[in-house]
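tool=predict chain=A
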Amino acid sequence: MLVVARTHAHGLLCAQQLAVQAASSGLALATYHLAGLVLVADAPGKLPKPLAELAQLISGGYPRTWRVPYVEAWRLGEPPSAANTPKVVARIGQDLVEPSRAIDLRPSPLTLNLNGANQ
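tool=predict ok
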């Protein structure tokens, strides 16, 4: 499972909550391996210090974290294309499929439950 979150406070806190639930095996859905976190910039420029610190803290709860910069075209509703997609997006895909990157994508024993009950 790959978690994607915006870098505003709400997005980061949701990613944090998901990491905590995954660590305590309290997630729902089925059995997944938590591959990492993709943080997508919610605005152009540098993150304010409190958000940057929160993003750094949350990243520790994931095996891998990638950062995707702000893309104005996406905000305006343009679909991703070669012209408007940062190179890091292709790198994420490569990191997930290349065996040399040593990411184990086999399902983990984590059981996800949509009702919030642990299994």
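The first helix runs from residue 9 to 23. Residues 2-101 form one domain.
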